[in-house]
Amino acid sequence: MSIEPIVFFDLVISIFILSLALVGLVFYYGKTIHKIHSYRREEEHLKLQMHKKADEIIEEARQKGNNILSQAHSNYDKEESAFRESLRASYANQIKDFEKVSQDFLKTYQNELDLIKIQTIQVLKNISKDIEKHTLLEINDFKDILKKETFASQKIVEQKIEKDYEEAKKGVDAYKAEKLKIIDNDIYKILQTVSMLVLGRTLSQQDHENLIIDALNLAKKEGAL
Amino acid sequence: MKDNTSIYSDILKSIKTTDDQEQLLSEIDILLDALFQTRLGFEKSLESISLETTKVLKETFLKINLDVTNIDEVVNFLNELKNKIKSLKTLKLYLAFFPSEDSIDKLFNWIINNLGNRIILSIQEEKTILGGAIIEFDGNYLDYSLKKRLEDLFFKRKEAIFKI
Amino acid sequence: MKDFSFYLNSTQEIGYVERTTSSIIYASGLPKSKPGEMVIFDNENLGQILSLSPNFIEILVFPENPVKPGMKLVRTNEFLKIPVGWELLGNVISPLGISLNPLNSKRSPSLRRGVNNPASGILTRRTIKKQLETGVSLVDLVIPLGYGQRELIIGDRKTGKTNFLLQSVLTQAKKNNICVYAAIGKRKLDIKELKDFFVKQGVFDQVVIVASGSEDPTGIIYLTPYSAMTISEYFRDEGNNVFLVLDDLSTHAKFYREIALLGKRFPGRNSYPGDIFYMHSSLLERAGNFVTPKGEKAITCFPVAETIQGDLSGYIETNLMSMTDGHLYFDGDLFAKGRRPAINPFLSVTRVGRQTQSNLKRELNREVLSFITLFEKMQNFTHFGAELSVGTRATLGFGEKIIEFFKQNPSTTIPINLQIILFGILWNNILENKQSQDKSQNTDTEKLAKLYEKNEDVRKKIDSMIEGSKSFNELLGIIRQKGEKQLVNILKYAN
Fold first, then answer.
1. Is the pTM of this model over 0.95?
2. pLDDT for C264-275, tens place per residue?
3. Neighboring chain B residues of C11 at a CB cutoff of 8 Å
């Protein structure tokens, strides 16, 4: 196939443009690398300087610290001795005060104790007297009540005995009445039988016959026959 | 049936009490035995029982024209008679004393007049009732004794008696 | 009952004895007599008119002295009545109400009650709601019974029926219920032993024994259960729950058969008269749960029937089973194996007992029943002689334990709450697979039962445990919590 000339020219032109671009790129790239290198060198230089300075500052600080420390030590010793002195003085004072106060306390405590002793002895005396009185009273009361009670209970017992007697009497009376009734009944029965026997014997033959016929008539009337 | 009843009625009339009933029954049994055992004639057998019964029987036979030589007929008649006698109802009387024949007759007449002729008396002596009678008939028991009446009387007048 | 001459005068009728057979006599007279009416002889014997015919009256006699032909008799215009009252308690009486103890100091009660009362109608009846404690754990836990239930006690002779009845009477008497024991045609020695048992246990003043010996007249034996029921009805109307035992109704049926055959009644099946069913049903229907003026009170009835060689299909047995609300079957085989009580829970029925149970008891019941059913089935496997799995062996072991738990001495009664607790502990042990010691079961439970009765604290604790649990699982939980230790402490305390 034959390539058309327009197309061929287009291709050539485009290749030409691209190669130009490429050259440009390569050139720019070289520049930038050169820059980077220079920056790096600077950086290293700066670092060195930094280190030096830091070392100097640390040295200074160290020296200052040492001075301060030495001053502090001497101050400390002075202060400590002064503090001890004052402590001793105040301690001695304190002891004196405490002694005083404790003695005072002791005195007052003893006084109080004595007072209380006296008071309690008095109170106890009173109490025992009261108790005596009370117990005497109670005993008397009890005696009186006991007397009354025994008297009352005697009465109750009396009453009870009377009651029982009455009841027994009633029972006996009832029994008597019953017995009398029974006797009466017996008498009545005897009367009955005797009179019946007598009546029976006194009837004549004719009377008997009449009775029988009457009975038969009655029976017939009642419809039993 | 009418004939039947009238045939036996004469004989039955003669029975007044249970004693009569028992006696007649035993006599009929004797007669039957005699008829069967010895094969005697009727006349001869009649000798073994009482005169009264013989008389009554003979009268009856005449009335009904019973052939006395026909033993079977006689036997039938006598068995029938026995049944009739047994079927008589009993009126039991408890009396204070055992009554005389006249009294019994009076009582029996009363019964015939008031209750018909199929009922006979049975009399038992019970002195404790003092008078009157206790009547028992057909399961009914009626106490009309003097004793009872007196007891009732006494009971009513109890208070008055007590006062005495 | 007044005397002969009084009735002669008041009724004005007389009868004569015409013919006598041993317990029935035929008399003539007495035109206005009624069937069932009482008659008196001139030697003060009593009798009851059975039937009337045109010429004769048929009378069943209750003779203390022999009755001869020709004797007189009168009708009383009354029906049979027996004396009932509180004086009957603590007494052995005949069915006519006469005390059999010659040294009895109490008077005969003055109130009389008819023996052949008809049963109450449906308006006065109520459903059975309360459980009846018998004191026997097998019955209370597995076959529950209720107040007002009629439960037939059925089994061969010598299977422990009477023992069970005595345990139940003991439990009921301790709860202050009235107990009536009807000994029908028993030997005099047996009756004495009954009385001695109650006296020894100290409950005889809650018990009435209505007894007829085997040599008593047939009429008296026939009357025994009816008298007992009448007495129970009296105590029910006085406001008490009554526990009635009828021991035994098969003997009663036999004596009634004798009377009926002598009276020329037409014999039916097994020569029993046609009304044998009615005889028993009219009696058993008088028991039940009633509402009375004094509240809801019940007559619980335990009739007893004796089978021959375990035959439950006999005539009287099937009759009674159909009349009652269930039955407890005493198995001769189980008795021979040593189980006391020898109740077979699979052949026993309770128709109205389960409705009385609380939720807890119902669940317990279900657990137990399902387990022992399983156990029975498993036991069949042992016959094969093959190797049993671990599970089967375990089940068999536990089943044995449960059977041991249900065994009880004749004179031991265990209150139901205690039974539930003990069973809960046993079940707990089973569930947790503990191998508990085989304690001497019976003596321990006896001691516990006595302790429960006497010590109120123990009783309250146990009751509160049970009332607090609404279900069986809850109760098991409580038991697990408190542990068996408490029980052991209680035992030590008892010792």
1. no
2. 999 999 999 999
3. 141
